[in-house]
Amino acid sequence: MKLGMVGLGKMGGNMAERLRRGGHELASFDVGGGGTASSLAELAGQLAAPRVVWLMIPAGPPTEDAVTELLGLLAPGDVVVDGGNANFRDSQRRHGDAAARGIHFVDAGVSGGVWGLDNGYCLMVGGTAEAVAIVEPVFLTLAPSGGYAHVGPAGAGHFTKMVHNGIEYGLMQAYAEGFEILRASGMQLDLTEISGIWQNGSVVRSWLLDLAHAAFEQEGAELAGIAGYVEDSGEGRWTVFEAINENVPAPVITAALYARFTSRQDESFAAKVNAALRAQFGGHAVKR
Description:
Layout: E1 2-6, H1 10-21, E2 25-29, H2 40-45, E3 52-55, H3 61-73, E4 79-82, H4 88-99, E5 104-111, H5 116-119, E6 122-126, H6 129-142, E7 148-152, H7 156-184, H8 191-197, H9 207-219, H10 235-245, H11 251-263, H12 269-282
Parallel strand pairs: 1-2, 1-3, 3-4, 4-5, 6-7
Antiparallel strand pairs: 5-6
Helix pairs in contact: 7-10, 7-11, 8-9
């Protein structure tokens, strides 16, 4: 089938290439250039009904602006797919806005990163059965066998991806802490070697562990060229918010999110307060 891809970055560009390899025809638009169209309006004109436009752009204002513009360009029966990491509540609202115009809106949680071009992408899709059926040939091409599901109604795709990323935060933090304990032991342990043997037969083996081993191989076991500053793209925060809203205890994901906040501090003011309090009540020495 033919579809329009908006956003040709690391994810969108690779997804477009995988679709081409799978026999699909693509029109494309990227604000940085390089697509078949120079605007969303031109992109819409390059597609035939029912037109399918897939967004792979940052969540927030870029997605909001693109969806708003597309709803003014497309016709009833057309489909907008948001494959970015939007908040599921925004996706539910956008579904309603699109439905009021007779346009389908599908939220697709996408996991696979830069490896997805060759390995495929895990796709968690939300929307009506009618809308999902229109785009399903694309989903089946992008995903590896068993890696795609229509998980529920509007918003369900991005909700599932949100929780997926919250779990990812916890897994990454557990690996990070474990390797720091090994490094701090004073036993001169080879972290590259250990991460390698854990890939074979260990109960903690995983793709994330494979990537940790690759990082040690590429950067050296001390990771000397990497700053210990860890960003977050929002999904971990939203997962914690929803856990609070649903009265679900999520201590691991919450702690992993806070660890990322801590990584961005040059010096912790809270630690200074702790040190000052110890000096006040116990006369403990402080480092100046």
